[in-house]
Amino acid sequence: MAEMTELETETEQSSEEAAATLRQIADELEAGDAITVEGNDAMITVPGTEDTVGTCLEVEHEIRGEYDQVEIEIEFDWTIIPDDDEE
For residue 59, what are the CA distances in angstroms to 18, 69, 71, 81? Predict the structure, then answer.
């Protein structure tokens, strides 16, 4: 049976802090480095990749009378296939 580790976190951040988080992930993704995400008193590190990365971008803009609600979800996925040398 497959083993899965998952971390989901929701926080309030300034726009500068949120942008810094995205930049860190983007830099690690671009370099093919492992990506580390922290939140909810936990941390998860996943292997990076230099292969093709699947992307999903979902944007919602809901007008609720006096105010708007905006939500952007970004999802990246890739498969790690070990080299014969790594087995």
Answer: 16, 11, 6, 31
